[in-house]
Fold this protein.
Amino acid sequence: MLGALVSLVTGYLEARAIKGALDEAGLYADRWFRLVAAVLMTSYVGFPGMVGLVASAALASGDSPWLALGKGIIGALLVVPLVVYNLWVRSDLTKGIPIALASQLAAAAVNQNVVVTERR
């Protein structure tokens, strides 16, 4: 995890250096870094926090510790991706970039007006 944080800080410093040389490209890189950092920090803080919250509630209701831990992990696996998805959808940078909508994209491609001509 430390290596990932070091690479993020290095990338951020490089983005700042690029910003000095190429102002618009640097701003764009800086905005992407902030989005990636927000997603990573939300995941890094949100997952253990959610596990602890759900596991504590399960323990308070009288469940065994292992069952409470399992409920906490399952709850975090359900909630954290939704929070990350919300960050992705609300960002200006990711407008028009689908995450996993292959069936909708395929249906849209089929419904387009396309004229196919064959060469003989």
Remarks:
- The chain has a mean pLDDT of 77.
